[in-house]
Design a protein that fits this description.
This protein is an alpha+beta fold. It has 13 helices and 42 strands. Strand 4 (49-54) and strand 5 (57-69) form a beta hairpin.
Length: 664
């Protein structure tokens, strides 16, 4: 009966809530968001283009779309002849099997589907927090995509946070680890030599912020964004590799030495990645935007009950520089037993055996001093899982036999590293590896990788990935500043979770920071590092601090180890790009709140009115009174609170805090 009522109501929903209508120009169509704030007008008179409005203010001006197939068949030409127009209104709930931010996502949008007489169509979806479009083709045979046109033009003078690639003369421009800073740039100062990967965040004058990214990136190259010497950005795609070579370095990788004159060779009938414009009137609207997940293809794996969120340790960043131990630390059985004991003591569920446990070019050449049988048996006895690092080149070469061996050892999570590309051939590699891992009931994390872009919805066992300038850069640079840390939730995180690997126990202010091999130091306070475990999306958080130091600070490590990683709900309480953020996450009946800031100290009142009725035990870890000089200074206190409570927090320069709220 409910279904019948819904069908009867559909015409009313279309007329009142959907509002797709002809604009003043007879060759234009308009679609409006469910709340009426965002609208897009599509024109096909001479070229396929669109304009986006926020509350009647033009924010995207004459953005153009085209797909050039087999050298001469153009979407722009096809768009002049419309065959049919379909309209759809959706208000559904997506249940997330492996939750990063929340268990359920509301999927509410209005859709305009335009089919052309030639074998092209295009779909626009307008959400309350953004606009997206997707091209489709219906050719009978496979096709070569010469190029895709995705030009984004802004109506007002625009600045933005873009991860610009630093070209190396000896390597193809499209070869990147996706690990850059996000400097604030004036858009019209960027020449065609300026190339960034997405997501990027734009701030036009006197209008909402706009983030550009993509979703459902499968069997197709990823989108870079190029400067135009004007108030716009141009989509650019890596051409298909024609020739490659594999390096013979310690960490081997495959480089492209020559490229074809096309970007992809694909099935003639298919959809292409979604081009997404997230629209944020307030900065705090960005980190909780779910459009990338919403627009991705649904789960292709099937049952994923075996995929679990978790927390791991990692030894690589500190170069296994342990102390107060009765053995010689290194890549050996005794060291990894120590890590297993540490994980068990402080609530971690796994350890990572990072690069070095085997020959990087042969996963079956185990490093002398390691007994995998002894370690796997010991880990099983302690109830701790072991995870393994691999080089992508080596994993690709030994895939089936390696996964079989990992299964025999009881390994359920691996990392593969040094991919550093997103052309079509490489994107195919991601999917092939995820499928193979799923067949072995194994989770996978990609390093040297582009952002997930919805891949974690399609393959939930691809639980997280890197593609971020994170903790490891403290070993050799001064780039990972608090301002950088505070830019990531508004840029990189928009396209999915990332493996930053926080938890440094050596912390410094501006004056005291330096690079120390084996004992790396982080910019900002201890609580700044602690807050990352809440603020940053990552269902498989990795602690990169030194366990020997952790044993000297039992209450702190017990608090850190108690932080969940898969969340039921997320709220962004307050935020400003590159300056500060306060995030609240729910797990069951409990809540965790964390805040971070840049080098400017900040005072905040944390209102707990979102809590349920009743009392909570609050455990608060905040910057100590001397944290401005001694960045490792912190204070842990406890008190009873309820939904009427307001907690006053003072964050030191480069500071942070964590509040753990346990329902009583």
């Amino acid at each position: 009966m409910r279904r019948i009522y819904f069908l009867l109501l559909l015409p009313l929903l279309f007329s009142l809530n959907f509002q797709v209508k002809a604009a003043n120009n007879k060759d234009s169509l308009m679609a409006i968001s469910p709340n009426g704030n965002i609208s897009v007008r599509i024109s096909n008179s001479s070229i396929l283009k669109y304009n986006v409005f926020y509350k009647d203010q033009l924010i995207i001006k004459d953005a153009t779309i085209n797909l050039i197939v087999n050298g001469n068949i153009s979407l722009a030409e096809a768009a002049k002849n419309i065959k049919s127009i379909h309209r759809n209104a959706v208000n559904a709930t997506i249940t997330v099997p492996v939750s990063e931010r929340k268990k359920n996502i509301q999927d509410n949008y209005n859709e305009l589907f335009i089919q052309f007489k030639a074998p092209y169509s295009i779909k626009f979806r307008v959400f309350n927090n953004g606009v997206a479009y997707q091209i489709e083709t219906a050719f009978s045979d496979s096709i070569f995509i010469q190029n895709e046109i995705a030009n984004f033009n802004f109506s007002n003078t625009t600045k933005g946070w873009l991860p610009l690639i630093h070209k190396r003369d000896d390597i193809d421009i499209f070869h990147t680890s996706y690990e850059e800073q996000y400097p604030l740039s004036i858009l019209d100062s960027l020449s065609e030599n300026s190339l960034a990967y997405n997501p990027v965040l734009l701030a036009p004058n006197n209008s909402p912020k706009i983030a550009i990214t993509e979703s459902d990136l499968l069997d197709y190259p990823g989108m870079f964004l190029q400067g135009t010497k004007s108030n716009g950005l141009k989509g650019v795609f890596a051409p298909y590799p024609a020739e490659e070579k594999t390096t013979n370095e310690l960490y081997p990788e495959t480089l492209v030495t020559k490229r074809e004159n096309y970007i992809a060779h694909v099935k003639g009938t298919r959809t292409y990645p979604w081009r997404i414009l997230m629209i944020a009137p307030e900065d705090k609207d960005l980190p909780n935007n779910d459009l990338v997940y919403q627009l991705a293809s649904p789960n292709k794996v099937g049952d994923v009950s075996w995929v679990h969120t978790g927390k791991a340790t990692d030894e690589w960043i500190i170069n296994i520089n342990l102390f107060n131990v009765p053995f010689k630390p290194g890549i050996n059985t005794a060291t990894y037993k120590y890590y297993i004991n540490f994980a068990k003591r402080f609530g971690f569920d796994r350890i990572m055996m990072d690069a070095g446990w085997s020959d990087t070019k042969d996963l079956f050449k185990i490093t002398p001093g390691i007994s995998m049988d002894t370690l796997t048996a010991y880990a099983k006895e302690k109830g701790i899982k072991i995870s393994m690092w691999t080089a992508a080149v080596t994993l690709n070469k030994q895939l089936d036999s390696a996964l079989d061996q990992f299964n025999k050892w009881g390994i359920d999570f691996i990392m593969t590293d040094f991919i550093d590309r997103d052309d079509q051939k490489t994107v195919q590699f991601y999917e092939r590896i995820a499928k193979a891992c799923a067949q072995h009931k194994m989770m996978i994390m990609y390093h040297g990788a582009y952002a997930p872009k919805g891949f974690n919805r399609t393959y939930p066992n691809a639980i997280t990935r890197e593609g971020v300038m994170g903790s490891e850069y403290n070993i050799w640079s001064d780039k990972v500043t608090p301002a950088h840390d505070l830019t990531l939730p508004f840029t990189r995180m928009l396209a999915g979770s990332f493996d930053y690997e926080p938890g440094f126990l050596n912390n410094a202010n501006k004056a005291s920071f330096r690079n120390v091999e084996g004992a790396p130091i982080s910019f900002g306070t201890r609580c700044h590092q602690l807050a990352m475990f809440i603020v940053y999306d990552n269902p498989m958080q990795i602690f990169s601090g030194n366990p020997s130091q952790g044993y000297q600070e039992i209450p702190f490590m017990e608090l850190l180890g108690s932080i969940p990683t898969g969340w039921d709900e997320t709220k962004i309480l307050d935020a400003k790009v590159s300056k500060y953020i306060t995030t609240a996450r729910q797990k069951g009946k409990d809540w965790f709140i964390a805040g971070m800031n840049d080098w400017d100290a900040i005072d905040q009142n944390i209102n707990l009115d979102f809590l349920e009725d009743g009392d909570y035990l609050a455990t608060i870890c905040e910057d100590g009174i001397n944290a401005d000089k001694y960045a490792s200074d912190y204070l842990i206190t406890s008190r009873s609170v309820n939904k009427k409570s307001v907690l006053k927090m003072h964050n030191a320069p480069g500071g942070g805090f964590l509040i753990k709220l346990i329902k009583q």
